Amino acid sequence: MPTTQFTVPLQGSPTDRYRHYHVFEKGAITTFTMQYEAEIDEQWRAIVRYDTAHGRPHKDLLHPDSAATKEEFPHYTNAEVLTIGQDDIRKNWKKYRAQYEKEMRRLK
User: Fold this and answer.
1) Mean pLDDT along residues 71-92
2) Would the pTM count as exceeding 0.90?
3) CA distance linking residue 87 with residue 82, whole number of Å
């Protein structure tokens, strides 16, 4: 089963990246993870993740207090959600980072 994985810096930022991982089997993506990470306070933090954990494709918006907001994609294929996730992260990573940092400040 062919596996693909790579890390991409976002718009050349050394402190923002997404990690991509997927398994392609029998003509379909069977498993994937697409995760936006930001280096904040010298620590890499996962902020948004699209994946197939728990058997279905979904999005987790991660918060600094360890909570997560989940969004399901019940009528989409794994490949479609992987593409949705990649597009969302590329377009909205600055917004996600700003919101995460704002939540961090509230916790202090």
Assistant:
1) 96
2) yes
3) 9
